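Illustration 12: Probable dual-specificity RNA methyltransferase RlmN.
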Amino acid sequence: MVESLKLNFSAPRRGLPPKHFADLTDNERIDKLAELGLPKFRLKQLAKHYYVHHTDVVEDMTDIPADKRQAVQEALFPTLMEPVKTTSTDDGETTKSLWRLHDGTLLESVLMRYPGRATLCISSQAGCGMACPFCATGQGGLDRNLSTAEIVEQFRHAAAAMDAEGGRVSNVVFMGMGEPLANYKRVVSAVRQITGQDGAGFGLSQRSVTVSTVGLAPAIRKLADEDLACTLAVSLHTPDDELRDSLVPVNNRWPVEEVLEAARYYADKSARRVSIEYALIRDKNDQDSRADLLGKKLHAALGSKVHVNVIPLNPTPGSEWDAAPKARQDEFVRRVIAQGVPCTVRDTKGDEIAAACGQLAAEERESA
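Figure caption equivalent — predicted structure in token form:
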């Protein structure tokens, strides 16, 4: 069933990015090195520079033969992302970066610093094909899937930035542009590299990675069978099919009950609590009755293996969608908790720098 996603949610084909170190298996990397006249032990050296020191500048890798560095750079570490714009807020604690890819495609990532930790919000696609009407990325449509390396490079750039600050990226959330499970194979490969240990990746704990989805039920089940310890986040946004069909159009294919059954399967397989994302929208999905229904359905489907994150909507300019008032938000949370389901309001950052997914890219396209 997951294979059918390729037919229904595949990205338009554009110029593929050049193959990068992060796109290749170890055997493919060794073959590349052999083509350059280098022995396979050089792979371990390159992996250490890339995954441990967070660099792709081969000229600075003094343990690589000087006469081979340029060839290695071109063959294994082509430039995939160029910075276009960086904006900061929260006294510099939140940084949103806009990147231009090799084919002109625009990509966003957000680095959020908190006391003692830093969370990177990462994109899995350029644009998004899920067409949720309150999301800036969904309004812009899907450009293409990102390659594995284009996903991984977002992490490396952020890790290098945190190195310069004397810190580290401690958490990764796949909540940027795109539907991660519609780019399934590359996202899983990126997760394995972000979390790989002993030279096989950046060494982040799998428990520190969250993969978000709007509810591609077969892909949720497939992800459960990967035996990862990542957190699954389901962007539910309403507990009833009638409204969700319009808020999250993929619900017409996989309704709420089926999504929650898949989420339960993931929770059981991973032994991880599922996070339910709920963007609270004024007069759309913020009613008492929906809070009550949400709590009841989640308690029945997931028991103690669930937590609700209420997200104050970050509205896009000119949109009919707006955040629910604070009093409504508080009552919504209270009513969900009353049904026996933990529920908190997510700390929002970056409102004044167009931090909602897709806003910065949309502004750049409009100004071009």
